[in-house]
Design a protein that fits this description.
By secondary structure, the protein is mostly helical. The protein has one domain (about 1-55). The protein has helices spanning about 1-15, 15-25, 25-55. Helix 2 packs antiparallel against helix 3 (about 25-55). The longest helix is centred in the C-terminal third of the chain and has 31 residues, at about 25-55. The two termini are about 20 Å apart.
């Protein structure tokens, strides 16, 4: 479950930037969100690959 916890923490850390961007119109926060979404995409792909490998071992 450490992967899941890491994923939750990563998303939770973005909350402040989401607030800054959507409620206050801070463009720099939007840039940080876009970068983080790219990292989230990579994390998701890594988890998918890990799950597929574990399924083969079962």
């Amino acid at each position: 479950m450490s992967r899941f916890d890491a994923l939750k923490n990563f998303v939770h850390e973005l909350e402040e930037d989401f607030t800054k961007f959507y409620e206050k119109g801070n463009k720099a926060a939007g840039t940080r969100i876009r970068k983080a979404m790219q990292e989230l995409k990579q994390m998701a792909q890594d988890i998918r690959v890990e799950i597929q490998e574990k399924k083969k071992d079962l």
